[in-house]
Give the backbone structure.
Amino acid sequence: MKIKPIELTTLAMILAVCFCLNMLESMLPIPSPVPGVKIGLANVLVMFVCFNLGARQAILIVVLKSIFVLLTRGAIAGVLSLSGGIVSVSILLLLITFNKSLGQVGMSISAAIAHNLAQLILASIILGNMFLVYILPVLLLAGILMGCITSMILVGCKPALIRIRKKVI
């Protein structure tokens, strides 16, 4: 798998912004009914990569973003980030390929719900506690809400991201 220097530079810039958004989001004092539920600002860029750069690049961003989480928040957070990221990107890529009728908002919601479900299942396995399933309704609601929010942010940022991409590539 050979990556062109210009593609590597583009992905590095996107990844750097993901890191910044991830850290910024962890500092925001947003109350949540379930610990760990966040907007997912860095996922806006992951969606942009899925829609505009491709599957390989999106998976690379998710893996590297998860390594960053591993290094900054620990092993469990890193593994949860990776599981949620890989599952949500896989769902998003499948929907982009086979079901364009959902639209960007529907795809974003589906990916957010898949992200939450993957993390819930893995957390239940890690903790050996199936009682986490009781927070499933909250996580489904959070997935719908956060999927809508990240999709709207992407719609707002997309023209600027496309302009940057055209200047770089």
User: Anything to note?
Assistant: DSSP finds six helices and no strands in the chain. The mean pLDDT is 87. The helical segments are 5-27, 41-52, 55-73, 75-98, 103-127, 136-168.
